[in-house]
Write a structure and sequence with these properties.
By secondary structure, the protein is an alpha/beta fold. The protein has 2 domains: 307 residues, Glycosidases (TIM Barrel), CATH 3.20.20.80; 76 residues, Golgi alpha-mannosidase II (Immunoglobulin-like, Sandwich), CATH 2.60.40. Helices cover 31% and strands 17% of the residues. Helix 14 packs parallel to helix 15. The radius of gyration is 25 Å and the shape is elongated.
Length: 454
């Protein structure tokens, strides 16, 4: 036994020392966010539904209003010609692309689209295009000129992406180098020729991550761009995307609204965000978008009496907020997806709220996006099962928010001094001081947002 131990000790002494494993902090990623994304608020615009005319020319007239709201980035749903083969409805889905380098004549001419982008830039707005890289229309000329670029059934026919009912589109095969070059060059075309500022990438997880990484590197050679992935995967932030969908936020909010269980689901979402996602990862959060409106229901009905609180939390919590077209006008119906179905514009109940929240996000550095903003620090309360309270920012420049995420009214007291200081109510302008003996009355689904004064 002694001999065995001696031999083992000798072997260990002779073995070379192992190098320390490399470590990259979570807040270090390769994608460098453009400065104009710092406090950005997204506005999703469906050109077909946005005006009675459904054109770029008509939508352009509304750009000053969006700029005055404080919107920073206008996300245009796909603007390309739509396939006719297997078309759904009379006008088809804008996600069935027939030509990646042309403009849908339903929406206007190339000159009118260029004028839309130029006017947006003149007003200080950025424009991103919805990009459908995973599939094309069945009658896209690529199906004839490059049939090898498409996934096939065992019988050799074009096929929709597996597991979907997207019968109007044919799935691409990204093992083909020629397809990758074509798609990258098409992305670059819109940046180079029209000055597009980035892309929202449809079902980004259905396309290989290394394609997106290569494409992003090529686009950044032309100009700083912003990219949003319709997917929820942290690795997409490393080399490809500024932002990903925060589906978990929407699911947590809708769960607690439906169940009435209190703040637990959203507390869990933010905890997961803090523990597992890079600080630089911008997570897009929303109370409404085109998919939800078309297939699930109207936001005001889904959230009911919690709707205003959900909107407010999407702006003051960690996340990149989205406003869906017509949301500021209290659009109260599901817009038809495959037809012309213009929004009925009116002065909405929440229009002023959106403006106030955008102004707050712009003015308060703590609320900025990704690495530009501050972490959320929870402030425990006497009603923590239902109430979620938190600060963001350094002392002297904090934002303190308290949300009753339940259908029950509460008188709330606070258990620690994490928030103590002098504040202003961000929505009413009233001065407030927290020193340790306060009780805050919150109605069901009530909330308060305070900004610190020095």
């Amino acid at each position: 036994m002694r001999l065995a131990l001696a031999l083992l000790a000798s072997a260990c002494a002779a073995a070379p020392a192992l190098a320390a494993p490399g470590y990259t902090p979570r807040d270090i990623v390769e994608v460098r966010n453009a400065g104009w994304t710092r406090d950005a608020v997204l506005y999703q615009l469906n050109t077909r539904q946005f005006t009675p005319e459904g054109t770029f020319r008509a939508a352009q007239k509304q750009l000053p209003r969006l700029a005055a709201m404080g919107v920073d980035i206008v996300w245009l749903m796909p603007i390309h010609p739509i396939g006719e083969a297997n078309r759904k409805g009379s006008l088809g889905s804008p996600y069935a692309v027939r030509d990646y380098r042309a403009v849908n004549p339903e929406l206007g001419t190339e000159a009118e689209f260029r004028a839309f982008v130029d006017e947006a830039h003149r007003l200080g707005l950025k424009v991103i295009l919805d990009w459908v890289a995973n599939h094309s229309a069945h009658d896209n000329p690529l199906t004839v000129s490059h049939p090898e670029w498409y996934t096939r059934t065992p019988e050799g026919a074009l096929m929709s992406p597996q597991g979907t009912d997207w019968s109007d589109v044919a799935d691409f095969d990204y093992s083909q180098p020629g397809l990758r070059r074509y798609m990258t060059e098409s992305l670059a075309y819109w940046v180079r020729e029209y000055g597009i500022d980035g892309f929202r990438c449809d079902v980004a997880g259905y396309v290989p991550t290394d394609f997106w990484e290569t494409a992003r590197a090529e686009l950044d050679k032309l100009r700083p761009v912003f990219t949003l992935a319709e997917w929820e995967q942290r690795d997409l932030h490393a080399h490809a995307f500024d932002a990903t969908y925060g589906w978990g936020w929407k699911e947590a909010m809708q769960r607690l609204v439906k169940s009435g269980e209190g703040a637990g689901p959203i507390r869990g979402y933010y905890a997961g965000q803090s523990e597992t996602w890079p600080r630089a990862a911008m997570r897009m959060v929303y109370t409404e978008n085109h998919d939800q409106n078309s297939w699930d229901g109207v936001a005001a009905e889904i959230y009911g009496p919690a709707y205003e609180a959900a909107i407010a939390l999407s702006f003051v919590g960690s996340g990149l907020p989205l406003i869906y077209n017509g949301q500021e006008a209290d659009n109260d119906r599901q817009l038809k997806f495959f037809e012309r179905d213009p929004i009925a514009w009116k002065e909405g109940r929440y229009d002023d709220l959106f403006r106030r929240l955008i102004a707050l996000k712009t003015a308060q550095a703590a609320l900025h996006n990704g690495r530009f903003g501050a972490a959320m620090i929870e402030v425990p309360t006497s009603q923590s099962a239902d109430v979620y309270a938190f600060t963001r920012g350094e002392k002297g420049a904090r934002v303190f928010s308290v949300f009753n995420l339940s259908p029950r009214p509460h008188a709330v007291t606070f258990e620690h001094a994490r928030h103590h200081g002098s504040y202003t109510d961000a929505l009413t302008g009233a001065p407030v001081r927290f020193a340790g003996d306060e009780s805050l009355d919150l109605p069901a689904w009530g909330y308060r947002i305070y900004t610190e004064t020095k």
